């Protein structure tokens, strides 16, 4: 590892403000612990998780109105230490319940040592937007998992990272954002974030995923892309384009994905056409990293040090290895908005012990994170992406669903928490035009409720196109 990742020089680090050196030191100290705990047997990890869980539950019972009621009703009492049986009685919190709880979800205060908090808004893979507060401590643990991912993947940080995405103007200067949207793209000197705090990194190159393939390919060649960060649905389209064009990109060493379903077919196609492996993670903005891909297998290891992850069947019982169930998570460090047994909206297949020897639990695959595609009037396809982060900021929207009605028409169905004003309608329309493109007519309709799948999931996107167009 050390020979592939260049540590920052101590002279340079000595000139940093204390807040950065302090953060780098904390991340590395936690990393030291994670390096050991990943090998613990499951029973030892479970005991350690309950040591974290007890004070969190006690805190939620005393300070979070939403949970005080639920925990008391489940028979938990302040001062009585949490047992496995008591935990099993805690009801699962659905996304909708968490969304509707509003202010009752937040404690009036939390331990000062956990730092300030920021607001996180997200729709995940579902059409139910939630808003949580995330403390600096929870953010630090998020970054520790990210660094663990880098160490596990052992790809180094010295190469050029290309990022194709529906970029957010808030991340860039106005000029920079213009460049991201253009055929030139935007190339910056460092990867940024916690990577740059710990290592010398290569360049990062941003481009909008709306650019045509020829432009993307020329960009990747020009910057000599070594790593690609991309949504799986966009990767699937990109691989198809590479295959049709019959071109290769020898500089590429790895492809990093997040947020959506990665299946074996996509992994195999990536290896065949792009000549490298996919490294995938499983995270949600409101919870943090739930699982990281094993360094030695295609399955995922639960991040048990920071997150209690349960896979439950329709009756709420724990699934056995090989069974698919609902993913229910409890982030162990976020006291700014505690989430206890939170149904994140995905399903996963639980796995058995991993051949790598790590004691961390295994998810063999995550299901239900697939994004479908919009079919474009001009031919071709595009990821059906309403900017969920922006959408989740509109508090009046309780649920939403995107329906492609025709090749040039999209219906955006809304369930409102409060009446839809002309101003909110205009803001939502503007988001839809940015997300889908101006070639679509967009109808915004207000519904009393939205249909669920048999397992109760609200799909954020549905295609109502005839099957002939779909295939
Ligand atoms: Zn493993």
Notable characteristics:
471 residues; alpha/beta; Rossmann fold; GMP Synthetase, Chain A, domain 3; four-stranded mixed sheet; 15 helices; 20 strands; binds zinc ion
Structure in a nutshell:
The protein has helices at 10-14, 18-37, 42-63, 65-73, 84-89, 95-101, 136-153, 174-181, 193-198, 213-223, 232-245, 264-274, 388-392, 422-436, 467-470; strands spanning 117-122, 130-135, 161-165, 186-188, 204-208, 227-229, 254-257, 277-284, 288-293, 300-302, 307-312, 324-331, 342-351, 362-367, 373-375, 381-383, 397-406, 409-416, 441-446, 461-463.
Shape: globular
Per CATH, the class of the largest domain reads Alpha Beta
Protein structure class: alpha/beta
What is the total tally of β strands? 20
**What is the level-2 CATH architecture name of the largest domain?**
3-Layer(aba) Sandwich
Q: Your description of this structure?
A:
With 471 residues, this protein is α/β, with parallel strands linked by helices. It has helices at 10-14, 18-37, 42-63, 65-73, 84-89, 95-101, 136-153, 174-181, 193-198, 213-223, 232-245, 264-274, 388-392, 422-436, 467-470, and strands at residues 117-122, 130-135, 161-165, 186-188, 204-208, 227-229, 254-257, 277-284, 288-293, 300-302, 307-312, 324-331, 342-351, 362-367, 373-375, 381-383, 397-406, 409-416, 441-446, 461-463. It folds into two domains: 1-155 and 253-369, 3-Layer(aba) Sandwich (Rossmann fold); 373-470, ANL, C-terminal domain (GMP Synthetase, Chain A, domain 3, 2-Layer Sandwich), CATH 3.30.300.30. 34% of the residues lie in helices and 24% in strands. The model has no long low-confidence stretch (mean pLDDT 88). Bound molecules: zinc ion. Residues 294, 296-297, 301, 354, 356, 358 line the site of zinc ion.
């Amino acid at each position: 590892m050390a020979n592939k990742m260049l540590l920052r020089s101590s002279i340079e680090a000595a000139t940093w403000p204390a807040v950065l050196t302090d953060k780098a030191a904390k991340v590395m100290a936690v990393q030291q612990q994670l390096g050991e705990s990943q090998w613990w047997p499951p029973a030892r990890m479970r005991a350690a998780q309950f040591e974290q869980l007890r004070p969190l539950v006690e805190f939620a019972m005393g300070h979070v109105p939403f949970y005080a009621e639920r925990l008391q009703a489940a028979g938990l009492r302040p001062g009585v230490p949490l047992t496995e049986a008591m935990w099993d009685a805690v009801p699962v919190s659905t996304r909708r319940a968490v969304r509707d709880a509003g202010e009752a979800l937040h404690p009036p205060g939390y331990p000062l040592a956990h730092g300030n908090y920021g607001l996180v808004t997200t729709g995940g893979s579902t059409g139910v937007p939630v808003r949580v507060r995330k403390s600096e401590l929870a953010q630090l643990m998020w970054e520790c998992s990210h660094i663990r991912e880098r160490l596990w993947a052992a790809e180094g940080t010295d190469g050029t990272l290309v990022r194709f995405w529906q970029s957010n103007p808030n991340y860039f200067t106005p000029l920079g954002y213009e460049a991201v949207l253009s055929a030139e793209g935007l190339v910056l000197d460092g990867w940024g974030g916690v990577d740059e705090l710990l290592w010398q990194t290569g360049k990062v190159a941003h481009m909008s995923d709306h650019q045509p393939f020829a432009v993307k390919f020329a960009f990747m060649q020009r910057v000599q892309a070594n790593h690609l960060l991309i949504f799986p649905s966009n990767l699937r389209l990109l691989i198809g384009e590479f295959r049709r064009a019959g071109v290769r990109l020898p500089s590429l060493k790895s492809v990093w994905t997040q947020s959506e379903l990665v299946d074996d077919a996509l992994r195999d196609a990536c290896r065949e056409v792009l000549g490298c492996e996919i490294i995938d993670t499983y995270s949600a903005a409101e919870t943090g990293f739930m699982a990281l891909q094993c360094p030695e297998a295609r399955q995922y290891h639960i991040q048990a040090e920071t997150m209690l992850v349960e896979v439950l069947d329709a009756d709420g019982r724990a699934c056995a290895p090989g069974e698919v169930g609902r993913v229910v998570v409890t982030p162990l460090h976020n006291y700014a908005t505690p989430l206890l047994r939170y149904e994140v909206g995905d399903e996963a297949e639980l796995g058995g012990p991993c051949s790598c020897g790590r004691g961390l639990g295994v998810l063999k695959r995550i299901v239900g994170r697939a994004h479908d595609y919009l079919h474009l009037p001009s031919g071709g396809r595009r990821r059906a992406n309403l900017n969920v982060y922006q959408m989740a900021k509109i508090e009046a929207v309780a649920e939403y669903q995107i329906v492609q009605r025709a090749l040039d028409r999209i219906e955006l169905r809304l369930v409102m928490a409060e009446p839809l004003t002309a101003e909110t309608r205009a803001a939502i329309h503007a988001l839809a035009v940015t997300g889908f493109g101006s070639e679509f007519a967009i109808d915004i309709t207000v519904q009393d409720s939205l249909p669920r799948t048999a397992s109760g999931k609200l799909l954020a996107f549905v295609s109502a196109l005839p099957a002939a167009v779909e295939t």
